[in-house]
Amino acid sequence: MLFVLTGPSGCGKSTILNHLLKDLRNIQFSVSHTTRPRRPSEVDGREYHFVSKAEFKRMVARNMFLEWAEVHGNLYGTSKKEVAAKTRDGDLILDVDVQGARSIRKCRKDAIFVFVLPPRAADLRKRLIDRGEDDPAAIRRRLDNAKREIREAPSFDYAIINDRLNRAILEFEAIVLAARCRTDVQDQTIRSILRSFSSPKR
Ligand code: ADP
Ligand code: 5GP
What we know:
Blueprint: E1 2-6, H1 13-23, E2 27-29, E3 32-34, E4 48-50, H2 53-61, E5 65-71, E6 74-79, H3 80-89, E7 91-95, H4 98-107, E8 112-117, H5 121-131, H6 136-150, E9 158-161, H7 165-180, H8 187-196
Parallel strand pairs: 1-7, 1-8, 2-7, 3-4, 8-9
Antiparallel strand pairs: 3-6, 5-6
Helix pairs in contact: 1-7, 5-6
This protein binds adenosine-5'-diphosphate (ADP) and guanosine-5'-monophosphate.
């Protein structure tokens, strides 16, 4: 199954996602390509595949992305190859901005879309300031974008209000676990249980 985690910058997507990846099995993170410079704490191929603008544009021209978008001046894209390879092994989560989630909705109707919201504008401002990656003008731009993006939240499947982090993590895990219990997803298992009732060793 494909899960798409989206929401405004600074709402807590990567924090929630990293906890879920530690807690649950058989679920992977889709490593996007980006032209953003690597941060000191990041490793190429772990958080992102860091590529030049020319390389990114070559990939766009070759139609290698499921979706791509410009986010705060840098290019980000989800490669089709990454999604195909990792969904063969189990469940996959994408962490994309709201434009990216909107594009994926058009081509992957089967995906499950989760929108993360900050409890209030003031909390988002504080988290962006505390994260320490943006100057005051960039923070104002991110808050303006957040207002536009949150207007779209009702069109996604689930909303998580990231007030208390622990509860937000549990809510995301509950969404993944509930999706795994769907009868269409469990179809093969149900059939195999049923077959065991026809076995002579019953
Ligand atoms: P995103 O991936 O959506 O851009 P991050 O996961 O980087 O957001 O979170 C932005 C900042 O907010 C980080 O410094 C993170 O530690 C902090 N944060 C995330 N969730 C909470 C929360 N529930 N309460 C307080 N701070 C939080
Ligand atoms: P950051 O540079 O802080 O890691 O991420 C900035 C924003 O880019 C986040 O909102 C994140 O969700 C988004 N993002 C990361 N990868 C992708 C991607 O492949 N596609 C799109 N559309 N957005 C992405």
